Amino acid sequence: MIKLILLLALIFSLIPFSEVIAQQENTKKIEIIPTDDAYVIADLNDLQDAENLRTINTGDLNFLKVWHASGIPRAEDKNIVTFAYLKFDLSELEQNQIVTANLIMYAQNLTFVDTPIAVDLQLASAAPWNESTLIFPDAPIFSGNILDKAMVTTTDWYEWSVTNPVKTNAGSELSLVVMLNDLSSQSENQVVFTSKESDDISLWPKLVIETVVIEQPAEPLPDSLIYLIIAIIATIAGGGSALFFYSRTNTQRKIQTKPEHPLTILKRRLAKGEISKQEYEDIKKRLNYKTK
Known about the structure:
It is rod-shaped and about 105 Å long. The chain has two domains: 96 residues; 188 residues, Jelly Rolls (Sandwich). By secondary structure, the protein is of the alpha+beta class. Strands 1, 2, 3, 4, 5, 6, 7, 8, 9, 10 and 11 form an eleven-stranded antiparallel sheet that branches. It is built from six helices and eleven strands.
């Protein structure tokens, strides 16, 4: 009996814990820096672009400006706007990994009449663009639908939820547009965010994505080893104990739980070619000896 108990303890120590409990899911956060970021500028009252604002490229600047100036003393006849674009590579993401996603940006400078000021985030089209060549006429169009809004009050970090567009664009690219919410007032409002060209890496814009990590279960014991264990137990303690162990350990494995004689098991194993004729005869002799 003591030998049997010790054998059972050893056997159960070999059975992977993952066969008894469900897979465990954990989450981790990853950060993705934009591959491209720049802002475009235009005077909406100057369709001929006399001041060449629409052809200005800002891809090498260390800031992203969202700005609106209209009806102010130094620009009474102007209606100047800027839109900041950010592009992210999501090719390494899978949709079912993503739990939440947020765009975060650092506001390093603010100029406006009234606070707080609303800064909107919208989805840009999938049209290709590059920060080194982006200008107003070539900028991807945006949806007009606000994904999220941040109320800016001071220099600090701000965030916008982008879970749905990140999931939708997982495996490809995602372009976003940041802009002021109110472009109709007769005033000047401006928020300046840090771009990825800044020397301070800690202030770069980024996507912060919470992803699911599934811990894979340990590999189960091979059937051949389980059958060998059954045969050994049968040799030491008799067929009944071996069959009880076989029935208990195979509930999770969805293997036949109806009691079978060890010889029946061995014959099936022999027929499948999983044991040799010599192995069959050797184990059969030990079983017959013990069960006479």
